[in-house]
Amino acid sequence: MSPLDHRRFLKMNGLGNEIVVLDLRGTAIRVRPGEARAIAADPASRFDQMMVLHDPATPGTDAFVRIYNTDGTEAGACGNGTRCVAWAMLEDPAMARPAPEGRLTLETRAGLVAVARVSDVDFTVDMGAPRLRWDEIPLREPFPDTRRIELQVGPIDDPVLHSPGAVGMGNPHAVFFVARDPATYDLARIGPLLEAHPIFPDRANISLAQVLDRHHIRLRVWERGAGLTRACGTAACAALVAAARLRMTGREAVVTLPGGDLAIAWGEDDHVRMTGPTELEHEGTFAPALLAGAA
Ligand SMILES: N[C@H](CCC[C@H](N)C(=O)O)C(=O)O
C-alpha cells in the first residue's frame, strides 16, 4: 500500500509543459522517487514535472512545493509548474484557500518565489535573481565569465554547438545560441549527452536559443530529468538573461517555445519575471495498482 493510493491530483499544463499538482498539505507524506516515476509513466497522470504542495516551512509563505521530474529526481525550480500551482491554490475547490489579491508566496528547495495573477489563467512569477557565479550555477570548475563557457559539441574545428551561457534560476541551465531554427538541431540526441556532461555536477537543462530580434527569442529545451518538453519557464528566463548579458537582446523579450510564448523581463532590481498561461486538463485519483511496489 502507498499513502498516495486514491489521492486526488490535477493534470494541468503551462504552455504544454505537462504538470501534475498534488496537495499533501496537512500530511507528513513524502513522494518517493519510484512513486514519481510510476505516476509519470501512467497516461492519466503523465507529467514533465509533478508539483507537490506541503505545509509552509517559512512564516509568511503559502506552501512549500517539492518539484519532481519524470525520472524521480527533484528540481529547485519550475516556472510553468509554479503558475499551475498558483491557479490550483486560488481556483481548485479542494486546494484553494483565501489569498488576498491573487498573490501567493511559495517556497521551494531553491528559495522563495512570488506569484501574482494577471488574468483568469495568466500569472506572473517572480523567479528571483539569476545566479551567475560558476559555483552557484553550479559548474564543476571555476569560470570567471559564465556568459560563455568552454563546452562544445561536434568536430573541434567546426563545432555544431559551442560556448553556451550558464545561468542558475534555482536550477542549472546552459543556453547555446544558434543561427538556425532550434527545431533543425537533433536536440533529442545532443540533449542527454550535455545534460550529463561532467562540467555540470548537478546535471543541467540544455537550451538552444535563436535570437530573432532584440525582443524575441525562439527556444527549445532538453530538460534535466524530463527530456524534450513543449515549454520550460526557467529555461526561458535563463535564455533572456544569457542573451541580455551578451547584449544580444534588451532585458525584456518574448520567448517562443514549441508550446507558445512566455514574456520574460529582467528588472533593474535584478529579479526575473515570467508571465504566461495555465490550463486545467482533468483531475483524477491514483489507483493503488499504479503505486504497488513503487519505491
Ligand atoms: N519545466 C520547468 C523546469 C523544470 C526543470 C527541471 N527539469 C530541472 O531543473 O531538473 C520550468 O517550467 O521551469
TrEMBL record:
Does Ligase count among this protein's keywords?
no
**What Pfam family is a match, any one?**
DAP_epimerase
- The residues annotated as site (Could be important to modulate the pK values of the two catalytic cysteine residues) are H173, E223
So, what pathway does this thing act in?
Answer: Amino-acid biosynthesis; L-lysine biosynthesis via DAP pathway; DL-2,6-diaminopimelate from LL-2,6-diaminopimelate: step 1/1
Q: Which residues bind substrate?
A: N17, Q49, N69, G79, N80, N171, N205, E223, R224, G233, T234
Which segments of the protein form a coiled coil according to its record?
A: none
Which cell locations does it reside in? Cytoplasm
**InterPro entries recorded for this chain?**
DAP_epimerase_AS (IPR018510), DAP_epimerase_DapF (IPR001653)
Which UniProt keywords are given for this protein, alphabetically ordered? Amino-acid biosynthesis, Cytoplasm, Isomerase, Lysine biosynthesis
This enzyme's EC code(s): 5.1.1.7
Q: Does the keyword Lipid metabolism apply?
A: no
Membrane-spanning residues where?
Answer: none
List the active-site residues: C78 (proton donor), C78, C232 (proton acceptor)
Q: Which reaction(s) are listed as its catalytic activity?
A: (2S,6S)-2,6-diaminopimelate = meso-2,6-diaminopimelate
In the record, the note on similarity to other proteins reads:
Belongs to the diaminopimelate epimerase family.
Subunit relationships: Homodimer.
Protein name in the entry: Diaminopimelate epimerase
What is the native source organism of this protein?
A: Methylobacterium crusticola
